[in-house]
Amino acid sequence: MKKTDALKDLPFPLRVYRQVPDDSGHGFLVKFAVFLKDRPGSLADFSSLIARSGGNISIFHYDRSTDSSRVVVEVEAARVEDVHDLAVSLAGRKYAFERKGPLSDEVSVTSPENILEIKVRLRNEPGTLAALARLLKGHKANVMYMLYDGDIDPEVSDIALATKGPEEIDGILDTLNGKGYHYRVVYRGSEGEKVENIIGLKAVEKFYMRLLKLLDKKDVSEMRKLVDSSREIYGNLVKFYSEAGNNLESADVFEKVLTLASMSRSRLGQRFRATEMSPLEPAPGVRLHGFRMPTSENIYVFENDGDLTMVDSGYGIYYRDIKRLMARKGLDASRVRRIFVTHADADHAGTSGYFTEEFGSEVFMHPDSRGVISSGNRAHGTGGRLARLNKYYTRLINTFTECRFPGKINYFKTKPTGSLGGFDIIDSFAVGGLKFSVLSSRGGHIPGHVFFVEPSLGLVFASDYMINIASLSEEEKGSLGVYKYLLTNPNSNHEIFKEEVAALKEIISSLDAGLRRQGLNALVFPGHGDYYAFAGR
Known about the structure:
By secondary structure, this protein is of the alpha+beta class. The chain has helices spanning about 40-50, 80-90, 130-140, 165-180, 205-215, 220-245, 250-265, 320-330, 345-350, 350-360, 370-375, 385-400, 475-485, 495-515, and strands at about 1-5, 15-20, 30-35, 55-65, 70-75, 115-120, 140-150, 155-160, 185-190, 275, 280-285, 285-290, 300-305, 305-310, 335-340, 360-365, 410, 420, 425-430, 435-440, 450-455, 460-465, 525, 530-535.
């Protein structure tokens, strides 16, 4: 082919080629990309314009999953005048030859049951593709994917489309039969094809459908908020990783969010498995139970005089399973009088509201947790990209795990009564003969984080500042990896966090040194993983 200069002055990026003479009568090929609105009928109007201009479409490619507005076409034309007419018609309809605005990432196809994919046989002559597109427009079907390549097969087009409902699919097929079309159904929504295999769906729509199935939620507005939060996480992660010289695909982020949602929801009822730590009797009449939830977070239960006191409470979605777990261990959940929460993350506070509602349990937290809860942002009060990531992550994790905070929270005092290792002692509580000091963190992990320390016995509830990674299974480590991926860093201020970890270790080391003279060790109760004897760690 030899490129012609007949239309070189037209202000459109049309590539025009003169064909080697053949029997088709088409002397020219015109290649271009155009940007259409993602709505029913757009492709029909566009292809009809080409037919009216005397053009015969030889290649037509539209894939809504990669770009919901871009169409690439190759048109055969008999004369240079036909090429000119096509260009004038395109200009008259004000078609765009370059993108105006960002890629659309809206969820408009929400159910696989409304989708139809067919391979249709067409006559290789001008106007046949336009006629098929008009037929689909008559049913208000939105084409999601269309591929016609005359070089591969001049009589077959592959089309995927979204309809208003499953009944409309029957209507389209009936009309095709009535018009004498020969076709093969590749997929229709009733067939249960995996969403990820459906062509033409945007990544965000595949994510929406998988999320909808996973959560089994009927509230569309709530689902859209979750999708919006996931997209915001993706947008912020893209910036974060690009600054580090790495690329990030939206599908990767959506897959991690789905993993986040499924980690807890797939381990309920008969699939719920908690790891029980060895019970302790730290003081006369006091028994301490530790349980690790399926997603690695710990809850601790003190048993004293028939009453139960909890330290941290696990994801809200585990509430029923935690009650059953307690019953199997001879613990009556209705006797949970108090819940002391180290911080307002969903995996540590998620069931607290349920216990309050059902049994009147009192919940104790740091006053700074109030802002975390009310703003729905675990990094409340901080700034920068990590704060934005935390905001959207908090919305997702709280919804996925059905976190429920109490309507009424008892807040610790904040006026220091002393200090320990550089941490302010702000309050205290007793469990039988155990006397715990409440230490306020300096905000390295999350605002309102506290530690509970029983100095005489060296019992230190350090939560997420001291994690026993070695005791976790590979699956449990994977759970923590998902959190880190989506947050890039789970700590509000990592430098302060590192300083606090070092200070905590100094406190524990000092307590341990005194206890070793009595043949004892300080015990660390982490937020994830088994408790352990410090023993100079």
